[in-house]
Amino acid sequence: MELDFFKMAKEIKDELVEIRRDFHKNPELGYEEHRTSEKIKDFLRREGIEFSETAGTGVCAIIRGNGEKTIGIRGDIDALPLEDKKGCAYSSAVKGKMHACGHDAHTTILLGVGKVLNRVKDRLNGNIKLLFEPAEETTGGAQVMIKEGVLERPHVDSVIGLHVDENIEVGKVGIKWGVVNAASNPFTIKIKGRGAHGARPHTGIDPIVIGSSVVMALQNIISRELPPTDPAVLTIGSFHGGTAQNIIPEEVVISGIIRTMRTEHREYVKKRLVEVVEGIVLSMRGQCEIDIEESYPCLYNNDDTVKTLLSSAERVIGKENIKILDSPSMGVESFAYFSMERPAAFYYLGARNESKGIIHPAHGSLFDIDEDCLPIGVAIQCETAFRLLK
């Protein structure tokens, strides 16, 4: 008999809602998710699912079926440093912390997936790994989990993940082929000159003037050196220097962010930033220090894995409720680390409902989801993993 994962997921909806609201009421920030982690482990113990700890507060669970093939399913577990202003029964009870990005829902969905698939493990043509990732909002627990071997023993063949989306109506999903999210490289530039009186600039080396030239020149990397068909951003977010109107300071500090959609563009922009900054600063008699951080990589969806996701989503919610997304997001997502290691599929689960007033943006103090999305997420994850094992 064919498995009906949506029916199975709807049967546990009340439990999913209860779990999600508990997480929402008790948010924890990255690598501080001790209560969250214990709740996850307690649930897994009750369901008879084996697990191990990873990345400090993360958890890696495994459901062993029949065969060596293994599918990983990821859910992030951390909250944000934000005040919850919703005023509902399950609003955050922790001052200054809130699940404002839906990770409480992601964790709940992954627990639901574990419950459902564990019930039918005898019909799985392989294994399922449940990857509960800490610190997605900060440094990304995914890279730590990978270094600690969660994609091995047994070897994970594909990875799937989701993110609730307040811009997509509940009952629908958004799927993007190819690049889904940008890569991120925060940077800091320290420019050193020589201080002087503001009335006698010729006696000093003005780092503010040098820095201003640097800011303008860096914009040309995106507008004149990358193809206009490929999105990329280089933003200066801060420029600090000086203490008074009539003093030329000794140094300024400039910081910003690079966002790129292709790995080759990421490497090119980093290289050119160094060349441009060093060239301008040297030509204007200054000195500089440049620090470019290696943050999240591009998130790539694998075509074959997406095809399986599409057919699975069609079975659960119907083709008419699947939106193919045209444009990638300039935001970052730590699932990208998994997508760089294994064939992956990542998609957006609709959580918006205007009739219920669920319209507020993620990372905002009024963010919420329509909990009808929870069993949909469980069903699509189960169906996709089940088909990938075939």
TrEMBL record:
It holds the Pfam family M20_dimer. InterPro entries: Amidohydrolase (IPR017439), Bact_exopeptidase_dim_dom (IPR036264), Peptidase_M20 (IPR002933), Peptidase_M20_dimer (IPR011650). Gene3D superfamilies: 3.30.70.360, Zn peptidases. Residues 187-278 form the Peptidase M20 dimerisation domain. It comes from the Bacteria. This is M20 family metallopeptidase.
